[in-house]
Write a structure and sequence with these properties.
The first copy, chain A, folds into 2 domains: 14-58, Arc Repressor Mutant, subunit A (Orthogonal Bundle), CATH 1.10.10; 67-226, Orthogonal Bundle (Tetracycline Repressor, domain 2). The longest helix of chain A has 22 residues, at 205-226. Chain A has helices at 17-32, 39-46, 51-57, 60-80, 88-105, 107-115, 126-134, 137-148, 157-176, 186-201, 205-226. Chain A is an all-alpha fold. Chain A contains 11 helices and no strands. The interface between A and B is large, with 52 and 51 residues. The structure holds a DNA duplex.
Chain lengths: 250, 250
DNA sequence: GCAGTTAGCATAACGGCGTTATGTTAAAAA
DNA sequence: TTTTTAACATAACGCCGTTATGCTAACTGC
């Protein structure tokens, strides 16, 4: 074939191949969706054979797993750009907005992260899920501050964080599935959901409304801080990403 | 092959083939998950060739669509067994519980209904989604009663219904994905979510707590009323299901 | 009753998929 | 320098959804 046009092809630990596969997979996923993620196509576009996918990731599952980790890393990026202010409720609302923005910016990636079923029989391991849950710790900490500030009822901060997570995850999922339309579009439901959660957690209607509005204004800053990211414009060098080596067919 | 052991094989409009395919597909989906849904396997287990899938459903997408309709029909079944009482908040909470119970009883079916991405490149049409949204009307009506009874703030009943939907959908999705564990398990988050939603909608903490507890007691009756259903134990006769004919390759 | 039409389905093939067995080769180890 | 090792190419296996073709039984009009 035309696998390597020039036959230099370094045989041991080519440092180009692995990140190239990851970046191409991420681009295919972002541009054409999950069905474009095939070992054959990725390898072809990377100028190598399908075996490269197996030596580097142990198979398609390993590459998909890499995408999932990338997705959580991007989410963590957004969360880390949410600053702590004197209004913890506005902060936690902003975390919710950041979560939604990340999902809408990387819709296919988000679908792979939580789609669970199908996709070449891929399924996450317990460790993968723990890695995803860890992302919640930022929200838990913020919920604790809301309770300390007596904006939320005394009780479980983790419970509040889980409520926020499940609620916004559901909204984003149905939004990406185009189930929310016209007068009851995702934006209206989202703000209502957010406000309702704050009230349900113990905040007053007035305070909640003000904090949610405040978070709306602050979102722009967060989004700008995270860029550039959308599809991975960087040259192809490696960056923050799990070391995680592939099992070499043992 | 052994396609039809006895070679009687009526050639025109065999009334057995179509429901047999649907029932086998439903069973495979329930027993082994989405990856077991293949035209070849379904046809083999039905004793026919893969062409039967195409003449009856126009391809795998058509059969998957049939599964989606079946899923919404089952959900509607649960909703129709939720009776109207003097406590509309308990009623709407019970709708939420019924929604969750249906999803947990038919997890793979629920995944196909809202998994959206992948699964042999299948995707729902706008009409399919409208069919799914229609299921919400039961909840909207109940939310209206909550507002009329002055348990919820005056405002949009559809908005409240969408909040409930997105919140519980998100919880169920993460629950099925095994993201909710141990001390913050799905049951705790669900009840907190439910109570929080009622308070957020305008109900008082005491009333909401009482209504949510009431709905917990009433769930059993609903579940018993819906059976039998889990995997489709019936002989194979047709039943409530969309007429929807397959495009004959025109 | 009969001929022409039609539609359900069997057979077989096509291209694409994930995966694996095997060989080749360049870098690391001795 | 020699041996070992691991990254990758090549080619094949079995699966998938889909399609082209042909057969035949049921409908259609006479």
């Amino acid at each position: 074939m035309l696998c390597n046009t020039v036959k230099v092809s370094p045989r041991r630990s080519n440092p180009q191949t692995r990140p190239a596969l990851v970046d191409i997979a991420a681009r295919l996923l972002a541009d054409e969706g999950p069905q474009a993620l095939s070992a054959r196509r990725i390898a072809t576009e990377a100028g190598s054979s399908t075996m490269a996918v197996y030596t580097n990731f142990g198979g398609m599952s390993g590459l998909v797993r890499e995408m999932v980790y990338e997705g959580f890393a991007r989410l963590q990026d957004y969360f880390s750009h949410v600053s702590r202010t004197a209004d913890p409720v506005a902060d936690i609302a902003l975390l919710g907005r950041a979560y939604r923005h990340n999902a809408l910016t990387n819709p296919h990636l988000y679908a792979v992260m939580f789609g669970g079923a199908s996709l070449a029989g891929f399924s996450l391991t317990a460790e993968d899920r723990q890695y995803g849950r860890y992302t919640l710790s930022t929200v838990v900490e913020c919920a604790t501050r809301c309770i300390t500030a007596e904006r939320f009822r005394a009780g479980d901060a983790e419970l509040v964080a889980h409520q926020l997570w499940t609620a916004i995850h559901g909204l984003v999922t149905l939004e990406l599935g185009e189930y929310l339309i016209e007068p009851f579009d995702a934006d209206r439901v989202f703000e209502a959901q957010l406000t309702g959660l704050m009230i349900g957690a113990g905040d007053t209607l007035e305070e909640a409304t003000r904090s949610v509005a405040s978070s709306r204004r602050r979102l722009k800053k967060v989004v700008e801080g995270v860029r550039p990211d959308p599809v991975d414009d960087r040259p192809a060098g490696d960056r923050r990403r799990r070391p995680r080596q592939a099992a070499p067919a043992g």
